[in-house]
Amino acid sequence: MLNNPAGVAADDPILQLPKVALHDHLDGGLRPATMIELAASIGHELPATEPEALAKWYHDSASSGDLVRYLETFSHTVAVMQSREGLMRVAKEWVLDQVADGVFYAEARWAPEQHLEGGLELDEVVEAVQEGLEAGVIEASADGKFIRVGQIITAMRQADNSLAIAELAIRHREKGSESGVVGFDIAGPENGFPPSAHLSAFNALHQAYVPVTIHAGEAAGKQSIHEALTICHAQRIGHGARIVEDMDIVEGEGQLGSLAAWVLDQQIPLELCPSSNLQTDIGGTIASHPITGLKDLGFAVTINPDNRLMSATSVTREMRLLVDEAGWTQTDLEWATVNAVTAAFLPLDVRERMLDEILIPGFSRVNI
């Protein structure tokens, strides 16, 4: 069953545009109704027991302006994802919600180490999520919809087992399933937990040719981006909005610092999440969010929802906000989506086919 994305009009033409979601957390995208059902089945108490009230609680709680408090809202979503059945259902619905948003490629970002309280082992939780993702792809296909998905296995930066999680990602990437592991990330509170603290994990991933994206430049400043790129071998940056701290730009003119110039010149993809950033006190408004200025300067920006439940959003809604409040055009949206396909953790030939067969024809058929 497909649900219309939150905050999007059913007749919005942006819904029809083909999209990519590179930064979308599995445990940040649960349907409120599903949470209520799963919580009831395990006796977990939620802050609200009606879908609309629960959705409002999530959005309000995540809008405190503090990343640590924002992250605390995940305690309830993670609580209902401790069984094989719960993981499979959440993963399947995650795929179907991507399809409803017009997404044809999505990477499910999640931390297996947070889903062991029900007695499952690390490999078992990865297999359960993969089964759920595959079930969603099959159901979408039966309905005439195409989507391809992969998993970004994430370690929690405040924990000390990132090497074990990296080895988990390596094992499951080697299995080669289309809904399997495509990359690795670290997430969680940035301040006090720098990427370089997990160097052994990143070295192992680098030697095994596993792509890496790292949460950086969200709560922490430009130094976190520097470490992610120069020490930890990241191919992409999760968020990265604080790269503007390495710039002195006034009315489109000015000077880039060495880090910002490197990110621009190397076209390192930035997984920007405007609505989520506003909730954690980056940007102020959609119009003043760094994504537009970075786009205008030629940075490889991509548009992402981060956590659809917490931000009551979707890729379509993020695009609509950028059009209505920041003056983006359809050409801008297409350019950012091309960036996302180019940055996807997929083989080159697959990315090229997606550009030629899905993205470019899809944009040409729609006029927003």
Describe this structure as you would to a colleague.
Belongs to the metallo-dependent hydrolases superfamily. Adenosine and AMP deaminases family. About 45% of the residues lie in helices and about 15% in strands. Strands 1-2-3-4 form a four-stranded parallel sheet, with helices on both faces. The protein has a four-stranded parallel sheet with strand order 5-6-9-10. The chain has a two-stranded antiparallel sheet with strand order 7-8. The chain is of the alpha/beta class. The chain has one domain: Metal-dependent hydrolases (TIM Barrel), CATH 3.20.20.140. Strand 5, helix 9 and strand 6 form a beta-alpha-beta unit. It has 16 helices and ten strands.
CA radius of gyration is 19 Å
Largest sheet, strands/sense/barrel: 4 strands, parallel
CATH architecture: Alpha-Beta Barrel
> Helices and strands, in N-to-C order?
EHHHHHEHEHEHEHEEEHEHHEHHHH
Number of helices: 16
Q: Taking strands numbered 1, 2, ... along the chain, how are they ordered across the largest sheet?
A: 1-2-3-4
What proportion strand?
5-15%
Tell me the helix content: 40-55%
Overall pLDDT: 95
What would the CATH topology be? TIM Barrel
DSSP strand tally = 10
Distance between the termini: 26 Å
User: At the first level of CATH, what is the class?
Assistant: Alpha Beta
Low confidence ranges: none
